[in-house]
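Reviewer comment 2.1 asked that we show a complete input and output for one of the modelled complexes. We chose the flavin-adenine dinucleotide case, as it is the one discussed in the main text.
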Amino acid sequence: MIIIIGTGLAGYSTAKEFRKHDKESPLMLITSDDGANYSKPMLSNALTKDKSPESLAMQSAEKMAETLNATIKTETQVTAINPAQHSVTAGGETYEYSKLVLATGANPITPPLEGDATDDIYTVNSLHHYRSFHPVVGDTETIAIIGPGLIGCEFANDLANIGKTVHVVGPDKTPLSLLLPETAGQALQADLEKQGITFHLGVLPKAVNKKGNGYELTLDNGDTIEADTVLSAVGLRPNTELAEMADLHVERGVIANRLLQTSDPDIYTLGDSAQVEGRVLPYIMPIMHAARALGQTLAGTDTEVKYPAMPVVIKTPAHPIVISAPAPGAEGEWDIEQREDGVKALFKNGDDLLGFALTGSAVSEKQALSKELPPVMG
Ligand SMILES: Cc1cc2nc3c(=O)[nH]c(=O)nc-3n(C[C@H](O)[C@H](O)[C@H](O)COP(=O)(O)OP(=O)(O)OC[C@H]3O[C@@H](n4cnc5c(N)ncnc54)[C@H](O)[C@@H]3O)c2cc1C
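Response of the prediction step:
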């Protein structure tokens, strides 16, 4: 039997791709959540679209089990993998596998904060989290978001769109500083500020305490922010716990080769949990490509994953952005053209385009420029 741990995009896409090549072999998916099939990217623009948690769940686990001709164990935590026995332990039961797939995603990083209200801070990295967050948004006038990165900026834009007063806090000089050159970050910040969002940059939050019916966030420069709700979006860490316990090789993520095979030849990984040939790529497109290859491998035809250039669209409609980050350590320089309503930043080595960050009206050049990019993993 093939067992897949996780029913996020990585788990379900792998199951779908496998079923394209093998309609009958036993397949089991095990998930600690309710197994609802949903689109995670929609979590950070759902408020603008007035989407309830229920409406984001596209199919129930029962429906997915039927479609995939699979057994799906929901609300069931896998607590151990025993590679020697080819078995996993989950909910007090032992299940044997021929091949195992780790699609366990990533966990939100908890910022180190003092204060009496750290347990009240929200994070939204799953439909389950959104089910908790969504009801409090209605009673929230002011929200403080910790983390001016991709997820923090998307939520800031979404919350501002529905009339909330939004503060964004973080040590970065400009928003999205890990992905965007400074000029582009400034352009994003300016347009988000026009939406009424206040940035507190170059500062670290130190403490969150209860104050009245809400909270007070204390920053390391002594400033304070009062808010009804605090949301943390400081990043994700690949969920490698099970792999580590099973003595698989792990660095930032669970290490895999191009077959998506871990250090145990019968255990595979993909998605936010995986580090494939050194790269952790926690986005939709890499998962789709990886699932396609892995589906074939699991069905008996070893297939290496190939990643083309995969630009990521940031959902900040106040200032549209599309990014294709250069490979880590790539040699080259940013060539930056600032326009009235955005930035066209090209990362080049001589004449070779290795990455880009397009903002504002420059996003219209995405298609043409993408064709010039080298594959991420050819
Ligand atoms: C708010 C938000 C917006 C995003 N927007 C975009 C976007 O616009 N474009 C883009 O490309 N990417 C975006 N991303 C990233 C993208 O959504 C993720 O890369 C992708 O959804 C990860 O899927 P996954 O299946 O690897 O992990 P997850 O969806 O996290 O799935 C992990 C699964 O593993 C299960 N699990 C974990 N541990 C265990 C265990 N021990 N036992 C049993 N089950 C277990 C969980 O229950 C879950 O089912 C966004 C992410 C977020 C949070």
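The first helix runs from residue 9 to 21. We note this here for comparison with the apo prediction described in Section 3.2.
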